């Protein structure tokens, strides 16, 4: 069942769970113990890669101020590839000191977004990739560069692909091990997405390129299908679609892990995840943040079991 | 931009707006005048096919008890192909008397669903297709047979494809002009969907086959993409994703017209619809039913403009 003349799907897709980081970062801070219960539920789902937290300013992201405490627990699950997001060299050092050697470094492709989020231009953020890569490599880890607002910026509109290509080529030159393209505000659509993906792959043919999607406009899973059809094997997702801004009611976060697992597994694509356990983790996440999450499948499952 | 090596999209897709029927049928009844305001907004979106109402028992579907009054207004828009759903010959005669000659007739592919919804078995429902087709043809209209619960039934589980094939081959033999496969409970996924579509097309090679999707598990737009890639040119959708059952909070209805138009048009596929006007119609729908609709794009648009 993995093949259809117009839809040739791969045998497997590798999902990275980002609910602990992208999902929680805009929520009201929740206790570390509640986070660890969520992490336990996430790990139990069978996922193999988890972005556990971010080492950034606790003033900027109070919800993840307990990064060190969370990181200290990760040795409980030696089989999982944990990673953390960092915003600069200082964050990289903090992450490594806390025991997390696999790092993600986000660079906004538009200057307006980069300045608003990181207080510097895209070029300034790009210039330090090598320093962060060196830290990761010395610690035995890898560095993934994630390009934020890769398709559209909330301030500057459409992102010129040239800006993305400048970041990724520089990243690879400076030692980045992986790349990821982020649809930060959830505006991209299948053909636009693949056009940029193609350009990035052509510019960086030897590096794995993942895709980070948000479901803000209801097109997240369609984009995920398009990405998989185009050979993408690394997708980010968050349990429950965690990641909506609680100050913007109804805002959707990342694509929901359970929805992605549902259609992939039903289509014969192995994810390593067990749907019922992903749904359990999504319920734990919903309880932890204290408001309804946006995942349609989570709600459908809740109706079924109530 | 309509082509990518792994994603060849067609120049156009034909959307049928079903919010007035499938969208409203489970809502609390709203005044006919409010329905007509919604219909005005829908027509202004540029859509060319609208399922306007259904001629069924007002006891079974009180929300559409005003079918005759709605039908009487349809002559205001001579450029639109209006249709109505009927459940039997009597409904067909009522629809035609009210001026609607293009009919949709739903047959549930499982006996349990057919009995629960229509009080008879699938075979009994199939037996009268010819009589309904005759009525439509005598009135100068066409009959589309929609197979409900084509993939899964809430009572019987997976629907054996053989049951669907029996319905569609009989339908064509009895004079049905079009076919449509309905994912009534929103459980299907890309490869399963296409496997059944292929079987139906092989059995009925000369008849157009549309797809009717619900977004209950967040996979509606991914299924729509898969359908379009497999050559489907007729998709049902409802403004705002109207159609969730108000008694099951968060239940998703049909795939949202605006989300479908958004990614299709951005991908270079002509729908004839103008996104901003679809969003206006979705807002009118939301106001008419008096509760938040599930469309992510509608919510994102609401945040943007508030």
Automatic annotation (TrEMBL), chains A, B:
<dbReference type="Pfam" id="PF00682">
    <property type="entry name" value="HMGL-like"/>
</dbReference>
<keyword id="KW-0456">Lyase</keyword>
<comment type="similarity">
    <text>Belongs to the HMG-CoA lyase family.</text>
</comment>
<keyword id="KW-0479">Metal-binding</keyword>
<dbReference type="InterPro" id="IPR000891">
    <property type="entry name" value="PYR_CT"/>
</dbReference>
<feature type="domain" description="Pyruvate carboxyltransferase">
    <location>
        <begin position="13"/>
        <end position="279"/>
    </location>
</feature>
<dbReference type="GO" id="GO:0004419">
    <property type="term" value="F:hydroxymethylglutaryl-CoA lyase activity"/>
</dbReference>
<dbReference type="InterPro" id="IPR013785">
    <property type="entry name" value="Aldolase_TIM"/>
</dbReference>
<dbReference type="InterPro" id="IPR043594">
    <property type="entry name" value="HMGL"/>
</dbReference>
<dbReference type="GO" id="GO:0046872">
    <property type="term" value="F:metal ion binding"/>
</dbReference>
<protein>
    <submittedName>
        <fullName>Hydroxymethylglutaryl-CoA lyase</fullName>
    </submittedName>
</protein>
<dbReference type="GO" id="GO:0006552">
    <property type="term" value="P:L-leucine catabolic process"/>
</dbReference>
<dbReference type="GO" id="GO:0046951">
    <property type="term" value="P:ketone body biosynthetic process"/>
</dbReference>
């Amino acid at each position: 069942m993995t093949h259809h003349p117009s839809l040739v799907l791969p045998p497997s897709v590798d999902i990275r769970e980002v609910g602990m980081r992208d999902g929680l970062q805009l929520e009201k801070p929740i206790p570390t113990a509640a986070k660890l219960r969520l992490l336990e539920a996430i790990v139990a789902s069978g996922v193999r890669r988890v972005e556990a937290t971010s080492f950034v300013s606790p003033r900027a992201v109070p919800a993840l101020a307990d990064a060190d405490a969370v990181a200290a627990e990760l040795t409980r699950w030696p089989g999982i590839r944990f990673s953390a997001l960092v915003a600069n060299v200082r964050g990289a050092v903090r992450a490594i000191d806390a025991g997390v050697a696999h790092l993600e470094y986000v660079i906004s492709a538009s200057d307006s977004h980069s300045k608003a989020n990181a207080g510097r231009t895209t070029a300034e953020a790009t210039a330090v990739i090598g320093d962060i890569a060196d830290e990761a490599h010395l610690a035995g880890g890898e560095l993934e560069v994630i390009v934020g607002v890769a398709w559209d910026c909330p301030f500057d509109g459409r992102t010129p692909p040239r800006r993305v290509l400048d970041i990724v080529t520089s990243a690879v030159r400076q030692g980045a091990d992986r790349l990821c393209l982020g649809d930060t505000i959830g505006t991209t659509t299948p053909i636009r997405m693949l056009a940029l993906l193609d350009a990035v792959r052509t510019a960086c043919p030897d590096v794995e390129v993942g895709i980070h999607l948000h479901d803000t406009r209801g097109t997240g899973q369609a984009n995920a299908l398009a990405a998989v059809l185009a050979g993408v094997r690394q997708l980010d997702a968050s349990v429950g679609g965690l990641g909506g801004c609680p100050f913007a009611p109804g805002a959707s976060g990342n694509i929901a892990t359970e929805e992605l697992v549902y259609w992939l597994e039903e289509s014969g694509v192995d994810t390593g995840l067990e749907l019922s356990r992903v749904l359990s983790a999504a319920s734990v996440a919903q309880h932890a943040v204290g408001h309804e999450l946006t995942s349609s499948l989570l709600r459908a499952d809740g109706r079924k079991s109530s």
